[in-house]
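Bump. Still looking for X8 domain-containing protein structure tokens.
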Amino acid sequence: MWPPSILIFLILSILSINHLPLARARGQWCVVSPSATDAQMQANIDWLCGHGHVDCIPIKPGGPCFEPNNLRSHVSFVMNQYYQYNGKTEKACYFRNTGIFVFKDPSYGDCEYDY
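Sorry for the wait, here they are.
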């Protein structure tokens, strides 16, 4: 049997591993392509938010992802939500060829992107 101090260390290590930056770096996110037009981005938001495909409260005023208040930030957040909760497939990030994959966590401040 291991000494109690080793057991406590192991338990705390397991619980805290998700809070390390390197642990969060392993993932894939879907965001809007830099070449997407404003019309394309707005169409994505309209489809995702207007039809209840994702929770759009985080990008509304007062939400953790409202700032910066711009179309590109808002659409990237909701596109990633859709991707993460719809099988993480290429099709779930297609959005008429406006979605791209990134491998660095796009979360910022209180705005946390799911992965």
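Residues 17-25 have pLDDT under 50 and may be disordered.

Edit: fixed formatting.
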